[in-house]
Known about the structure:
Elements: H1 5-24, H2 26-29, H3 33-38, H4 45-56, H5 59-72, H6 87-100, H7 107-115, H8 119-154, H9 161-209, H10 212-218, H11 241-250, H12 256-272, H13 279-286, H14 290-303, H15 305-321, H16 323-328, H17 337-345, H18 351-386, H19 392-414, H20 420-444, H21 450-473, H22 484-500, H23 507-517, H24 524-533, H25 543-569, H26 572-608
Helix pairs in contact: 1-9, 1-18, 4-9, 4-13, 4-14, 4-18, 5-8, 5-15, 6-12, 6-13, 6-14, 6-25, 7-8, 8-9, 8-17, 8-18, 8-19, 8-20, 8-21, 9-15, 9-18, 9-19, 12-20, 13-14, 15-17, 15-25, 18-19, 20-21, 20-22, 21-22, 23-24, 25-26
Amino acid sequence: MRLGTFDIVILVVYFVVMIGIGIYVTRRAAKNLDSYFLGENSMPWWLLGVSNASAMWDITGTMWLVYILFAYGLKGVFLPWLWPIFNQVFDAVYLSKWVRRSKVRTGAEWIKTRFGSDTGGELARAIILLFAIISVIGFISYDFQGMGKFCKVFLPWDLSPNTYAILIMGITAIYVVLGGMLSVVLTDFVQFLLMALSSVFIGVIAMQSVSPETLNTLTPNGWQNIFFGWNLNLDWNTILPALNGKISGDGWANAFGFFFMLMMFKGILSSMAGAAPNYDMQRILAAKSPKEASFMSAIVSICLVPRWILIAGITLIGLAFITPEFNKMGNADFELVLPYVINNFLPAGLVGILLAGLLSAFMSTFSATVNAGAAYLVNDIYKPYLNPNAADKTLVRAGYLASILVLAAGISVGFFLSSINSITQWIVSGLFGGYTAANVLKWYWWRLNGYGYFWGMLTGILCALMLPVVKQQYSLTFNDIYAFPVILTVSATACIVGSLLTKPVEAETLKKFYRDVRPWGFWQPIYEMCREEDAEIQPNRDAVRDLTNCGVGIIWQLMLVTIPVYVVLRNFTGILASVLILVGTSIFLKKFWYESLLREEVLMKETVK
C-alpha cells in the first residue's frame, strides 16, 4: 500500500484530535456516573442521533454490506434486516419514549422498574446483565475481526491482523476511558462528518469510473432488480463462478422467499423487544426527554444515507476492477472487497482521508460498545454489590478499569474467530434469538415476572451459546437464522411456565410502571387497579396506530437505502420510484407519527402539572 506524506499527516492529525477531545472533556465527564455514562442528559437529540448512526457505521459491518451488495445485488438491501436495521423505526415510533420514561442509566437498572427488587427482580437484573456483557464482548470480537482483516490489506507494515486490531483498539480506548459518553458522542460527530465526506468522494469516483452500460456486463441478469421470487436466481457462472459457491454457503439462495419471511418474522419480534442493552439504549437514556429520544431514533436512518453511498461506490468499483483478480484466486475472500478496492484503485492523496474515515467508522462503534459495557459493570455490579457508598470519583475510576476489562475480554474472544459472517450470524440470529421472547413479553404482558424473565433469558442464552458448538460437533452448515424459531419457542415456553408457577410482580411496582411508561398490550388488570386510584387515567389505545406507523416506517427507511444505491448506479427508474415512495411515506408519518408525538408530549406535561 502506498501511503504518501500527506496521507500519513492526515492519519496522525486525526488520531491526535480524537485523543485530544477525550482529554479535553475528562474533567466534565469525571463529575459522576451520569456525566460519565449519560453526558448529564444535556446533549441535543440530533447530536445523539448522529452519534448513534456513527456507532452503527462500523467498518466490519460495512465490509459485510459491501459483500452482500456485491454478491446479491439490489436484493441485498434486505439482508441488513437480519439485525434488523428497522428496529430504529420501532424505537422512533414508540419504544424509545417508553424506555426514556424510566429515567435510569442502563438496561439492567431499567429491569428494576419493571420487576421490582425482590428475588425475581434481582434474578431478572442479573440475567440481563449477563446478556449485556456477553453481547458487548461479542460485538468487540466482531470489531476485532473486521479491523484486523481491513488493516492487514490496507496498511503497509508487515504486521498480523490481530496485531493491527490491538493497536487501533488501544488508541481508541484512550479517549473512551478518559472522556466517557461525552467524548464518545463528540468524537462520533467528528467521525461522522469525516465518514460522510469520504463516502461522497468514493461515490463520485465510482460513478466516473464505471458507466451503467459497463455495469450491465459485470453483473448477472436480475442483479439490479430489487424484487425476488422463492429462489434468488442469480447466476454468476459466466462472470465470477466462485461467487456461486459463496452464495450457496450462505444458505439463503435456494429458498430466498422462505428466508425472507423468516427474517421478517424475526425482525419484527426483535424490534418489538426494544433496544438491546448496548450503545443504542445508552443514547436513548441519555436523551433529554421521551420526545427527544424518539426524534433521536428517527434521525439515525437519515444519517446512514451516506454509508450506502460508500457501500454502493465500493461495490461498483469492485465489480469493475476486483472481479478479474478474484477469478485468478483459487480461494477468494469476498469479505475483503472494500479494503482491496481502496488499496488498489483509489488515487494517492485521497487515501489518507478515506482511511481516516473508515478507521473512524470502526472507532465510533467500538468506543460506544466499550462505554456501554463499562456502564453495566460499574452501575450494576460494582456500585450496588461491591462498593455501595463509593464517592463519585471512585465510581468514575471504576469506569476506567471496567472499560479496560471489557476491551481485554473482547480481544481475547476475537483471537478465536476467523470469519466476519460467522460472528455476524451468531450475534443476530443466535444471541438475539435468545433475547427476543422475554423482552417482547416484558412490554406487552403484565403477568411476566422476574422469575419468568430470568428463565426465558437463561434458556435463550444457553441455546445461543450451544448453537456454534452443536454445529461444529455434528458438522452442520445451516444458516443460524433457521435456529431462531427453535430458540424463540424454548425461551418463550420458559418465560410463560416460569411466570405462571410463581407469584406476580408486586402490584405497586406494576402500577408505577404502567403509569410512568403507559404501554399498550395485555395490561387490563393493572389498568383496572390504577383506575381505582385515579378515575381519569386512560388506557393506551395506540397499538394499531403505532404498528401501522412502524410498517410504513420500514418502507420509508428502505427508500433511504435504495435511493443512494440507485444514484451511484445511475438507475434513474429506481431513483424516481424510490423518491416517490419516500415522499408518500414521509407525508404519512408526519401526520400520524410526528404530529401525534407532539400532541402526546403536551398531554404528558399537562398530566404532570
